[in-house]
Amino acid sequence: RGVPKDSVQAHQWYNLAGAHGNEDGVKRRNRLAQNMTPGQIAQAQYQARSWRGKYQDSSQRMQLDQQVPTQ
Hints:
By secondary structure, the protein is an all-alpha fold. The chain is 59% helix and 0% strand. The protein is built from three helices and no strands. It has helices at residues 7-19, 23-33, 38-55. Helix 1 (7-19) packs antiparallel against helix 2 (23-33) and helix 1 (7-19) crosses helix 3. The radius of gyration is 12 Å and the shape is globular.
């Protein structure tokens, strides 16, 4: 309702939230990843790294390519 769902973009934002210590972001990212293809997850991780590169300086960068559990 309202806006189309975009799993890749949602994963990106949950990944960024998780990288900053938000446990709910990690849980939601992992749950969302269960219904995504490996290509979609890779795209989301790429987008998260790109965002991080634009908006955080190198001293604040965090690991965003954590293993996402699979089914």
